[in-house]
Amino acid sequence: MAKENFFESAYSLKSAEETREMYDRWSQVYDQDLSKGEYQQPVRCAEALHAQVQNKALNILDVGCGTGLSGLALKELGYQHIDGCDLSEGMLDKADNLNIYKRLFSCNLNAPPIDAKSNHYDAVTAVGVFSFGHIMPQAVDELLRVVKPKGTIIIGLNDHFYNEGSLTKKLNILETSKEIVIINQEHGEHIPENNLMGWVITLKKS
Ligand SMILES: C[S@@+](CC[C@H](N)C(=O)[O-])C[C@H]1O[C@@H](n2cnc3c(N)ncnc32)[C@H](O)[C@@H]1O
C-alpha cells in the first residue's frame, strides 16, 4: 500500500471525525515526518512566550498539543507546568510517553467547553492547530475563557491559513471590542523543507 502523504491529507479534512482519524494514523510517524522538514513553529512559539514571561512556574495549556513537539520546546526553555489537550487519542498517547505534561486530556476546541476551568492558565499556546479542517477561529473565545486576565496566548500557524483571513478577522474584532491586545505578529519559517512559512501571533487577554 502506498504511504499516505499526511501533509496533503491535512488539507482535505471535512469533519472532526476525519481529523481525529487522520491524526490517529499520523501519530505513528508524525515526529519523523516533522523532524525531516525541520518544523520551526514549536521553538518560535516557545521563544515568543519567553519574550513575554520568563517566570518558569507559569501554568501553561498547550492546546492541540499533538505528540508533544510544542510542549517539548516549552520544556526546553525551562517551563515546568504544562498541560496539553488534543482531539486525537493517538497523538495524546505519544505526548504522554514524553512525560513532560502534568495533565493531558481529550478536547474538541470546535465544540466547547473543554475540560478546563475558567481564568485558570497564565498562558495558552496553540501551535499548528488553527488551520483548514482543524481548530476554527471561533475557538479563540474558548482560549480566552481558560486563560487568566492579562494572560498570554501564543498562536503559531502557517501562511495558508493566515492568508485565508478568518483568524486575523476574529482577532481584529476581539481587539476592537478591547477583549484582547495583539502584542506582536512575526513572520518566519514554519516547515522550511516544505517551503512553508508561517506566523507567530502573541496576544494578551484584557
Ligand atoms: C499539526 S498538529 C500540531 C501538534 C503540535 N501542536 C505540534 O506543533 O506539533 C495539529 C493538532 O491539532 C489537533 N486538532 C485538530 N483539530 C482539533 C480540534 N478541533 N480540537 C483539538 N485539537 C485538534 C490534531 O489532533 C493535531 O494533534
Structural write-up:
The protein is α/β, with parallel strands linked by helices and 206 residues long. The protein has one domain (6-205): 3-Layer(aba) Sandwich (Rossmann fold), CATH 3.40.50.150. 37% of the residues lie in helices and 27% in strands. It is built from nine helices and seven strands. It has helices at 6-9, 16-26, 30-36, 41-52, 69-76, 89-98, 140-146, 159-164, 166-176; strands at residues 59-63, 81-86, 103-106, 121-127, 147-158, 180-191, 196-205. The radius of gyration is 16 Å and the shape is globular. The model has no long low-confidence stretch (mean pLDDT 96). The chain binds S-adenosylmethionine. S-adenosylmethionine is lined by residues 16, 19, 23, 41-42, 64-66, 69-70, 86-88, 91, 107-110, 127-129, 134-135. S-adenosylmethionine binds next to helix 2, helix 4 and helix 5.
Shape: globular
CATH level 4 superfamily: Vaccinia Virus protein VP39
Number of strands: 7
Give start-end ranges of low-pLDDT stretches: none
Give the end-to-end Cα distance, rounded to a whole number of Å.
Answer: 52 Å
The CATH class assignment is: Alpha Beta
Q: What is the radius of gyration? A: 16 Å
How is the topology of this model organized?
Elements: H1 6-9, H2 16-26, H3 30-36, H4 41-52, E1 59-63, H5 69-76, E2 81-86, H6 89-98, E3 103-106, E4 121-127, H7 140-146, E5 147-158, H8 159-164, H9 166-176, E6 180-191, E7 196-205
Parallel strand pairs: 1-2, 1-4, 2-3, 4-5
Antiparallel strand pairs: 5-7, 6-7
Helix pairs in contact: 4-5
Bound molecules: S-adenosylmethionine.
S-adenosylmethionine is lined by residues 16, 19, 23, 41-42, 64-66, 69-70, 86-88, 91, 107-110, 127-129, 134-135.
